[in-house]
Each structure stands twice: as structure tokens, then as C-alpha cells.
Amino acid sequence: MDRPDPQVLVLFGATGDLAKRKLFPGLFRLVREELLPEEFRVIGSGRHSPGSDDEFRDHVRDAIEEFGDDDSPDTGELDGFLERISFTTSSADDGTDLAEAVKKSEEQVGDGVKRLIYLSVPPSAMKDMVGMLGETGLADGARLIMEKPFGTDLESAKELNAALHDIVEEDQVFRIDHFLGKEAAQNILVTRFANGLVEPIWNREHVAYVQIDVPEDLTIQGRAAFYEATGAFRDMISTHLFQLLGFIALEPPVHLDADSLHAEKKKVFDAVEPIDPDHVVFGQYEGYRDEEDVAADSKVETFVALEVFVDTWRWSGVPFLLRTGKAMAESRRTITIGFREPPLKMFESADGIADRTPNELVFELTDEPEVSVAVRAKRPGAKLQIDDAVLSLDFAEAFDGYQPLEAYERLLLDVMLGDHTLFTRADEVERLWELCDPVLAKPPKAQTYDKGSWGPEAAVQLAAPRGWRLPDDE
Fold it and tell me: Does the pTM of the predicted model rise above 0.90?
């Protein structure tokens, strides 16, 4: 594919965890794949300097060697990448030095240079940072990547959108949700729209339920300041899980481009019924209040499960079950489409239970994605007995030798190319806060659950009678 125009990238939060684990390793991968422009500069920025530019480059080198996809990166290639990296301090109160550094870098890069600004800053600081970008002229002609959560409620999201639209046009803003950059998430659209076997049954006549399940076995791992201010609902439900719901439930767009996809996704969010508070479960893992910097009486949820409905001709009456949480039994990212059942009394099963597991289409949204179908088949033997079986598509085997881009790599490249398809739009964000605000205004009490479990028992009842697919049926 064509390489982007020459770029100057400004990364706020350049010494943070996201930059270390994803952004710098991702940029270097794009260099190796010859997907970055030949001419570019990267300016890290933040309140506190890591020292000299050479010291910052050593920090970036360590991040790439630890978290990059190549255990032994080519030294010359890595040195060439690091030479283009520098650091300039800035804050919401003062961006003068940063504006000057950007100007000098753009002069070095030359004609046709584009400016990309990545705002990896806390929600509480986002509006002031946007103001600084406007006052210094840094936002002029720039593309802005905004990290989630985008605001903390409807009012703050509207204020932030208004502040952005005071200094840039909507098409300059890229609200990032890395779940949408995953190959597996995009395969939802391909599986559905490119296969005549699937699209005719993708509706309430054939689908009994949908589960979007993202448990994590990790605790908050030192992120108490973020989690105490945000919680699982703002961190995951109002962003990642609802965006995946939009991919699953949208109507076929006329074209698979940004405008068409956003229009259909917004229609889905408009059709989501008000969330019933009786169908929302909050949980907090045992020991959360003992974590460093967590309040002794914290009521913050580390687990959420809820049931929502989409009131359209395609989906009316079909429950969409969403679940996520910290310190759970496994880390998984699984979407399950459960199908309605045919009569089964004519069959005898191997264990005497003829209706044990329903047919399900399952998407595993991992870095090594897999799509499987749970079916019933005749068990080999003299008797006609049915048992559970799985048809599976392993993408690593099906497309041997092809290495997909990691989500942040794909999304960074899309921004440089000006492609909004996998990003979220202002009106989508505001509509999702309209749905989520009532839950946050009167949140259910967080029920305690054991570390390494599947969450509070009340969450299990939401998925009755089928239950959650995770843990997998044996």
C-alpha cells in the first residue's frame, strides 16, 4: 500500500505505559514494514522531562526491546529510528517550547509534511490540553488522536467536543478505540457481509442471544489513580464493548467506508433501549480496597455485567449480554452469537442430554484470532447418537506466513492516511453517554467476588437459561 505523507508525530504521555507497551514498539514495527513515510520525526512530550534526548531514546530503546515483536531488532534499523526521536516538555499551561520544536522538525522534514498529535492524557486534563493546542497553533491543520474514555459523562463529553470543534474540524479528530483496530473485530464485518451462509441468519428470527465477554485475570496493577476515577463501566462498557455491539448489530452499509459505517453504527446506538438498572450487576474483587492508593471504603466497580436490547426489526427481543472485569478466572475477548434451537427429541445423545449446548458462532478477539462454530454431529459408533463438535477457522493456519498489524499499529497508520473507518465519531460518543449516564447516576452496589472467579453470582443469572459461554463448556 502507499506510504503516508511525511509526518511529525507529537506524543503526549510519551513516558507513560501506553507509549512504552504499544506506541513506540508499534511505530518501529511500521518502520520495519516500510509503512511509515521515509521522512518523519517523533516528539515525545509531557510535564516531566526524562532527561536529555539521548536518555529519552534509551527509554524508547528499552521499550522496543521489551515489548516489540522482534526479540533481536536490527541495531542499525533501531538506531536510525531513534535518531528521529526527541523530547520537549510541555503542559496545558505552557506549550511554547513544544510549538517551537514542532516547527523546527517540520522544517527538517520538508515539503508536504503532516502533523499528528496523540493525546494520551487523563480525561480530567484533556480539555485544558486541547485549549493549549489551540492557543499555541499546534492544532492548526493537525490530526488529533484522542484516547478513551472520551469524557466521563454526557456533559463532559459535550464540553470536550465543543472545545475540539472550536479549534479543529471533526474530520481532524480521531477518537481511538483499539478494540476496533483488531483483525478479529474487523472479521466480524467480513464474516457477516461476505458470506451468504451467514448474513441471511443474522437476525432475531435465528439468533437467540449475543454475548460480548471481556474478562481479565489481571488486577488493577498499580493503576489505582485511574481506576478510582474511572471504574470498569467507564473504562470498558461505554467504550469498547458498546463499540463491538455496534459492529455486530449494524445494518449493511452501502459502502464499507467511514461515513457509511458510522451512519449505520449511530442508528444502532439510537435504537438501544434505556438500560434497565435491574439488569446491571457491579462487582468489586476481594482485596481491591487493599490495593495501594485505593480508598478504604471505595465503592468503585471492577466488574460489570449487563443486558441491553436493540429495538430494531432485526434485533427486537434479542438480549445482548455484556461482561467485563478485573481479577477474573481468565483473560479472554470472546463474542458469541447463539442460535435458536430446532426440535431435538428425535435424537439420542451420547450422555442422554440431547439439548446440552446450542449452536454458537464464536469470535475470539485475540492477537491470534479464531472463529469457530459449535455444532452437533453424529458420534462415531453403531448407534445414532449426537454429541457436541466444533468447526474452527485458525487464521494463522489459513493464512500461513501473513503477520497482521497489531491494533495500535493499524490505527496509527490509518490516522496518517486520514482514514476514519475504525474510529468513533462525536455523535456516537454522546449517544453512548446518554445511555450510560443513568446507570452511573444511580449505580448498583458493587458485590464482592473472589479473585480468579467469574464474578458475582448475580451476573450468572443475567445469562439464564443458557449461562455465559465462558468458562467454555467441556
Answer: yes
Report CA 457 to chain centroid distance, whole Å: 26
Residue among 48, 59, 165, 240 flagged as catalytic:
240
**Strand, helix or coil for residue 26:** helix
Contact 393, 370 (CB under 8 A): yes
The strand pair at 7-12 and 85-89 is best described as unpaired
d(CA 343, CA 349) in angstroms, rounded, equals 13
pLDDT in tens, the chain (474 residues): 678 999 999 999 999 999 999 999 999 999 999 999 999 999 999 988 899 999 999 999 999 999 988 777 888 999 999 999 999 999 999 999 999 999 999 999 999 999 999 999 888 889 999 999 999 999 999 999 999 889 899 999 999 999 999 999 999 999 999 999 988 888 899 999 999 999 999 999 999 999 999 999 999 988 898 899 999 999 999 999 999 999 999 999 998 899 999 999 999 999 999 999 999 999 999 999 999 999 999 999 999 999 999 999 999 999 999 999 999 999 999 999 999 987 766 666 656 554 567 889 999 988 778 899 988 888 888 887 788 888 998 887 888 777 788 999 999 999 999 999 999 999 999 999 999 999 999 999 999 999 999 999 999 989 988 889 998 754
Q: Is 279 a catalytic site residue?
A: no
Q: Which set of grid coordinates corresponds to residue 121? A: 492524557
Helices 123-136 and 96-109 sit at what angle, rounded to 10 degrees? 60
d(CA 25, CA 165): 31
Beta-bridge mates of residue 387: 377
